[in-house]
Amino acid sequence: MRRMALLILIVGIPSVAIGEVSTRVCLADGNTPFLPIDSNFPHIYPDIMVGTKLTIIVNSNVAEDWNGSLAIADDNWDYGVLSARGYDGFSYPGSCLPAAGDGAAVYDWEEAGIDGFDLYTGYMGIEAGDWFIVDYNATDIGDCNVGFYDHSVSWIDPVYYLTFSHVRTRDFNKDTRVDFTDFTVLASYWQVAECNDPNWCEGTDLDIDGYVDPNDLKLFVDYWLEKTE
Fold this sequence. Notes:
Strand order of the largest sheet: 2-10-9-4-7-6
CATH class of the largest domain: Mainly Beta
Low-confidence stretches: 1-17
Oligomer: single chain
CATH topology of the largest domain: Immunoglobulin-like
Distance between the termini: 70 Å
CATH architecture of the largest domain: Sandwich
Largest sheet: 6 strands, mixed
Helix content: 10-25%
Shape: elongated
Strand content: 25-35%
Number of strands: 10
Order of helices and strands: HEEEEEEEEEEHH
């Protein structure tokens, strides 16, 4: 009878969700989700063009004091850049969202081999929700890993990396949008067979094989109407 009563007591206790601070990646507008390539690999994202801007939002499902970081190691600096918002000479209040509480702060984190931002919730008024927003820009062709650190876990090692891969821009005229103007540029080099480094026929030889052909057209339309910065 005692065992039965104990079992009933244990089963009757409601489950308590474990608090989690995590990241969400959106397009430049900060609202449209930029989803990973596979739910089984939740921090590996689809290819983006050089010049693309994304936003990284740090959020929590609990209201509790927290601090952590977003940062890029020096071997990735050539490919991607993080930037915070609203620098006031000391910190970046523009990157602190209301749910992070009064007195929340974002500071530069710069040391040998690391460049990024430290994130601190406030001293009161912390709520579950979106806490911080940091911008990410794809600056060159290649892969870039952004480390997400939770200082309650480790000050040295990231909890995980957000992995971005950058490909050649399709915004040939650099007007921040891939559209018919860029298609006209590609068409002007159609079947040209002497594209060379570093210009590659104004970038229209997207697979850099020396020719502007159907393969490049396919690569171009994959990013139709995409925006860049």
